[in-house]
Specification:
single chain; 17% strand; 49% helix; Alpha-Beta Plaits; Calcium-transporting ATPase, cytoplasmic transduction domain A; seven-stranded mixed beta sheet; disordered N terminus; 5 domains; alpha+beta; 27 strands
Amino acid sequence: MTAASVASPAADLSGFLRPTGTDGESRLELMVTGARCAGCMNKIERGVAALPSVARARLNLSTGKLLVIFIGSGADPARVIDAVEDLGYVARLYDPAAVEAEYDKDGRRLTLALGVAAFGTLNVMMFTVPVWAGLFGQELSATTRTVMYWFAALVATPCALYAGMPFFTSAWASLRRGKANMDVPITIGVLLTLAISYYETFRGGRHAYFDAAITLIFLLLIGRYLEHKLKARARGAARDLLALQTSVAVRVDADGLEQGVPIAQVQVGDLLAVAPGDRIPVDGLIEGGASEIDNALITGETASVAVASGSAVHAGALNLSGRLLLRARAQAQDSALAEIARLMEAGAQSKSAYVRLADRAAALYVPTVHTVAAGTFVLGWLLGLGAHEALMRAAAVLIITCPCALGLAVPAVQVTASGRLFRAGVLVKSGAALERLAAVDYVVFDKTGVLTEGRPRLIAGDMDRLADAARLARASRHPLARGLARAAGPGAVADAVTETAGQGLTGVIDGRPARLGRASFLGVPEATARETELWFARDGEPACVFRFADSLRPDAAATVSRLRALGLGVEILSGDVAAAVGEVAAAVGVDRWRAGVTPLEKAEAVRRLREAGYHVLMVGDGLNDAAALAGAHASMAPGAAVDASQNAADLIFGGEGLGAVVLAIRTARAAQRRALENFAFSALYNAIAAPAAVFGLINPFVAAIAMSSSSLIVTLNALRMNLVARHPEDVS
């Protein structure tokens, strides 16, 4: 049953409640549309949380998902839907397919509006540029000028009215709820500009501003479209993470028959079969079989883990060698993998501080400017200026104080800084990420794949016997076997190879039996065994050992030193074993480190650092880092990271080194300085321009030029970011 099949909120929706695992608690997931800002989010959460039996409510603006936690037996989903709709929003049962369809629909509307605005902006210039020529002594006759304005009106008006609908509808919805967002002054400015332009054209006036109206919408739509794409990345992070869960599980019935079932149908207590090469479908307990599993994406541990009866396994782990029977301990939506996805959503939502700041600024800007404009009109009229002159002054106030320069103050810097970093091999996924990155004072590194290269590399062994050992290694998916095969290069595979789960491989090489695996598998005393080695022997030959290491990135130690020189604290959090983590920490000069950390513990550690007052930069690459990346103040991931971590991270860097981390921080700090300069200029501009418009020193035409010039100045200041040298030390 989907949300679309529910006829009305009055229907019995209790079947959509799911237990949370805590006694007496249940949860409901709804899809909410129409919520755009943090004010909307807080209003919905407060309204729903006030309902009887509701313990808490959380709305994620990026996904549109409203999670409601009920306590006790009085849970009423229909009442929640009614409450949300009474607040002026649309709510229905959460259906991922419906969410994607609605999101794609919004994207198509924005794309079409942007195209119409671009068409209108380019074509209206055909009629307004000849009028501008009058500024340079090529004055048109009054009749010709009026004809040009009418043609401009024919192009600009329908384009502006259609392309401006995203702003008009948002402004109307905000006003209906007694609020004023940034779309309100945009809407008033565009409509008033069109109205004044028509008035001037009717009376044969010298100045009309049809081009200004459609151009303003075009520039603003570019920002709105980029915001839409940013939300798509945020939504994709949790989606990519959950994609690591297999969509089908093999359930074993009481008669031993195996049947493939959708993962959503797996219940707690079901017996499941997992073949070698498949991922564990849900959290469970092994009841039969033995194997090795690859937990690298879950815990970050480089060595595979041997499992047998009684071992606990988590969804998303890769079964490497033997067939397993496991008893499900949780449903798919309650697995550790799903919990990490929920942490990522919560972490992404917590980054909305800049949205709240913008809303508060809008709440102050709108009444102030509109009060000044209205006062200018009323006082001018009362003082005998006449309705026309008073209206022109009021219009000049609205146009010259249009928050374009203020709106560009940060985005212009962010675009410039992002472009500079892109040329240096760093992809910035959102402008707000640079703001957060500039504030970081503590860096947390994952070990495997970040400080190290993330691939076991052969460092010692009997090279004369490497080719023979590789013939067995090529038949296995074990990480160390792959490292051995890489070291040997392409070649043949041994005959009759069999793999013993958690132990090693046997086969025939040139007619002689051979073994490759753990020390105990070859009869080598356990006292000499290590996790990062493989032993090899053929019948009649002594055993030899091949040892592996995960090499440090070449500039890891230098990067840590430079971060400390910037005044940042550094820590390592890794899921790997203590010996490996301690060795890396000593090599790069980090005193604070923790090993054997689970994904949830990583996210919790980052949360505690933030609560202690630190602004944390998390640098990680594995699935085990995804929740911590989403919860950190800012986050970075290497280009080789898994998709879920790349989506959760704010910045992605390429190359083999870590210098991009230092470069990104320095560039972000420089961008912050440019942004503050732009804010200062915008404040000074408005302090001078608004009074000049009030006293009639500036007409609407000059106001439009001044507004455009202010935008140009903040943009040129942002471009100063490109004038600095390329070396990270020289970013200023």
